[in-house]
Design a protein that fits this description.
heterodimer, A: alpha/beta, Cytidine Deaminase, domain 2, two-stranded parallel sheet, B: Ubiquitin-like (UB roll)
């Protein structure tokens, strides 16, 4: 199960809408081992493509160095599909390299850049095996004391 | 000559769980051979044969002192004592062409 605040869910959806018809991508980092999606980070899709995404390699290094310094890990790795369903493609499965992450897929195929419902689904992808999981959107207490002590 | 190599989560099965290991070599290709001697199997995750020559795998990023080695000479990139090498799998995917 993936738990997200409405703010983070909305930020992912807004990014996907804005970049449509190209795929949008990014990360939500959180304290290592916490499974809490806390810090939303948009990434540049270096492929700039409606059918492919790849984190810009310089931003990728910067991101991992920041997460390392903050004792964070990528809790969510998200990207959009812009003309197909929000389900991992063969490419998504073949290239998935964070078995501990929640892979969120958003599909903007219905409404594109406009307001309107989007498909928003989450998966574990581990060694070629895809497992869909429930997404729970809930407003958590604004400040988690556990975050500050970690 | 010690070079620190940062290992991503998915390759830590080869390093006994270590996030960082030491290696040596005057170039990246020598460093990778040295890593392979200490952590058998890791080379194949970094290198593939392209047109009969060893090359960095398309979806693996290697950085020497924060520079993507694709811009510094690839596997021939020269290394010195104290350099830091970071290995990061690309974060990539997408719907693909139908």
């Amino acid at each position: 199960m993936l738990t997200l605040t409405p703010e983070i869910r909305d930020a992912i959806v807004a990014h996907a809408r804005r970049d449509h018809p190209d795929e949008a991508c990014g990360v939500v980092a959180g304290p290592e081992g916490s499974d809490k999606a806390v810090r939303f980070i948009e990434m540049t899709n270096a492929a700039g493509s409606p059918t492919f995404y790849e984190f810009d390699s310089t931003e990728l290094l910067q991101l991992y160095k920041e997460m390392d310094a903050n004792d964070e890990e990528p809790v969510v790795i998200y990207h959009s599909h812009t003309s197909t369903e929000a389900y991992p493609s063969r490419t998504d499965i073949g290239l998935a390299s964070e078995p501990g992450a929640h892979y969120v897929l958003v599909s903007t195929r219905e409404h594109g850049n406009s307001e309107g419902p989007v498909e928003f689904r989450s998966y574990r992808i581990d060694d070629g095996e895809v497992t869909e999981e429930e997404v729970v959107v809930t407003a958590e207490p604004a400040r988690q004391t556990t975050n500050e002590s970690e | 000559m010690a070079i620190e190599v940062r290992i991503p989560t998915i390759l830590r099965t080869y390093t006994g769980g270590e996030k960082s290991v030491d290696g040596s070599g005057a170039t990246l290709v020598e460093l990778i051979d040295d890593l392979e001697a200490r952590h058998p199997g890791i080379k194949d995750r970094l290198i593939e044969a392209k047109d009969g020559q060893d090359d960095l795998r398309r979806f693996v990023n290697l950085y020497v002192n924060d520079e993507d080695v694709r811009f510094t000479g690839g596997l021939g990139t020269e290394l010195s004592d104290g350099d830091q090498v970071v290995v990061l799998p690309a974060v990539a995917g997408g719907a693909g062409s139908s």
